[in-house]
Write a structure and sequence with these properties.
The complex is a heterodimer of chains A (258) and B (270). Chain A is mostly helical and 258 residues long. Chain A contains ten helices and no strands. In chain A, α1 packs across α7, α4 packs parallel to α7 and α7 crosses α9. The longest helix of chain A has 39 residues. A six-stranded mixed sheet of chain B has the order 6-7-8-3-9-10, sandwiched between helices. In chain B, strands 2-1-4-5 form a four-stranded antiparallel sheet, covered by helices on one side. In chain B, a hairpin with a 2-residue loop joins β1 and β2. The relative contact order of chain B is 0.16. The chains are: A mainly alpha (258), B alpha/beta (270). The interface between A and B is medium-sized, with 11 and 23 residues.
Chain lengths: 258, 270
């Protein structure tokens, strides 16, 4: 009984220590903000690596998710004779929920895992120690630009996902199933609200960007510097990011629309 | 490169104690690293030789004791002063630790770009001179993934020397090298030390190569300095432990067998 209690205590202390280290890393990354202000080249390079290289998977996924929404939405709405509101349904689903959430999940899988593996391997191959010994702060020089690149890229990728999703829904709804073209766009224009839908979606994707990039960088920086350690950290990045995104999505939705 | 306080050791380690968990890696160690000399720290794997370099570089903090580098207690320095001091230190990591996303040229230029405002033409000349010194001027366009292990270490050596440091620390520079690469590295360490007037600390367990270039050797084991002296003195040491290590004998004070029950007892118990 006492042993179990002690084990539970150790797990609790381990969790809090872990959380403390993650928060300290976030603090030090944010303290290095001037590094990306004075050396924008560092940021641009990472935006390309984290954001631009994720565009293909985000675009393809966005189109297919939009097409499925168009198809499913049409069959449900047509039962009530409301198929002309398909545009609203597709756009609202994408902008409020699916855009930020699915983009964040894909981002964690594509860019997050790559960030963790990169930083973890830099640690394992002593590149981070090497920077320290060259009097270069590895958090400011390596982690801060990647953090801001993730935070900037995520809302843009979510916007791309939503825009292409709407086009996918349009293609299926209007192109294949015969929904009226004018109704599709005009209903969407009338019902999608800038404050309630667009801004809230952007806020969500910004929060997910911070959380996913933070988790990915922390897992890489905290990785055990062996091949197995880096592999475990990469897995943890995807699992923790996905859970954090889904949990936070519920909280944010409750706060925004509750 | 030698200053007015030539007589003072460049690095003075006193009473160094460092624990990993409950295991003492160092237990009251005293070491002096003399200016302009090649000092070797030797000992079997796992005795904390790399840890010692990290302690000297201020990457780890001791549990007790002091390390003075060029008169400054490195563990009492603020971040800015520590980084200032590190700019005068070079370190060659076992893996080379080259940045894998930039070329050989950019790797060597990296510390100059980070810490100076020199014009590009000057950076180019400095980098080419350092690469020439390690024989790799022609490899400046290659990426680190295109280099052999020995070449990577030579590039790392050029990078460590590019800011003309007062000292260079070598972490197992000969491990895993073929005889030619090893010969090149042995020669380079000695030549760069003498030509640039730096002080060198070589951490290694390759006895012959290290003894060939060192001016002074410290042998450490179980958290203590077992013995120190000139290479010839260490090779002829009468201490059993030093003799076993320097001559690579299989059995001696460091037993061949990992602690276990008697063989007969072990075989019969099942």
């Amino acid at each position: 009984m006492l042993d179990q209690l002690a084990r539970l205590g150790r797990i609790g202390i381990g969790f809090i220590t872990h959380l403390g280290r993650a928060n300290l890393l976030l603090f030090f990354m944010l303290r290095g903000t001037d590094e990306v202000v004075w050396r924008p080249g560092l940021l641009i390079k990472q935006v390309f690596s984290v954001g631009v290289l994720s565009m293909l998977i985000i675009s393809v996924s966005g189109i297919f998710v939009g097409m499925v929404l168009g198809l499913q939405g049409y069959y449900i709405l047509s039962q009530f004779g409301a198929e002309q509101t398909l545009g609203v349904m597709v756009a609202a689903s994408l902008v409020r929920e699916l855009g930020p959430v699915v983009t964040a999940l894909l981002f964690a899988g594509r860019a997050g895992s790559a960030l963790t593996a990169e930083i973890g391997l830099m640690k394992a191959t002593e590149q981070l120690s090497g920077l320290e010994m060259m009097a270069v702060n590895p958090v400011r020089r390596v982690l801060t630009p990647r953090f801001f690149a993730g935070v900037i890229s995520m809302p843009l990728l979510a916007a791309l996902f939503s825009a292409l999703g709407v086009l996918g829904g349009y293609f299926v709804g209007v192109g294949l199933l015969g929904v009226d073209d004018g109704a599709f766009w005009s209903q969407m224009q009338a019902k999608i609200d800038l404050q309630n839908d667009i801004y809230n979606g952007v806020i969500k994707s910004f929060v997910f960007g911070v959380v996913c990039t933070w988790i990915a960088l922390f897992q890489g920086y905290d990785a055990v510097p062996t091949s197995e350690g880096v592999s475990r950290s990469t897995t943890r990045t995807v699992v923790h990011s996905s859970l954090a995104v889904l949990g936070l999505d519920f909280i944010l939705t409750a706060l925004m629309f509750g | 490169m030698l200053g007015s306080n030539d007589q003072e050791p460049l690095i003075k380690i006193r009473g160094l104690t460092f624990y990993r968990g409950s295991r003492a890696i160092f237990d009251g160690v005293d070491i002096d690293i003399q200016r302009g000399k090649v000092t070797a720290i030797m000992g079997p794997s796992g005795t904390g030789k790399t840890t010692l370099l990290k302690l000297i570089g201020g990457q780890l903090h001791p549990d007790a004791g002091t390390i003075h580098v060029d008169g400054q207690n490195i563990h009492e320095l603020g971040t800015k002063a520590l980084y200032q001091l590190r700019m005068r230190m070079g370190m060659l990591f076992q893996s080379g630790a080259l940045l894998t996303d930039i070329s050989v040229f950019e790797n060597v230029a990296y510390p100059i770009r980070e810490h100076t405002d020199l014009p590009e033409s000057m950076i180019r000349k400095l980098v080419l001179l350092k690469l020439e010194a390690v024989g790799l001027r022609g490899a400046r366009h290659l990426m680190p993934s295109e280099l052999s292990g020995g070449m990577a270490r030579r590039v790392a050596l050029a990078r460590a020397m590019v800011l003309d440091p007062m000292m260079v620390m070598y972490d197992e520079p000969f491990t895993g090298q073929d005889p030619i690469s090893m010969g090149v590295l042995v020669q380079l360490i000695r030549e760069l030390n003498d030509a640039n007037g730096v002080s060198s600390i070589v951490v290694s367990h390759d006895v012959q190569e290290t003894a060939a270039i060192a001016d002074h050797i410290y042998v450490i084991s179980n958290g203590k300095v077992i013995e120190h002296g000139a290479p010839a003195q260490m090779m002829n040491s009468e201490l059993d432990w030093t003799a076993q290590f320097m001559h690579g004998k299989a059995d001696g004070p460091v037993p061949f067998h990992y602690p276990a029950k008697e063989l007969a007892e072990d075989m019969l118990s099942c």
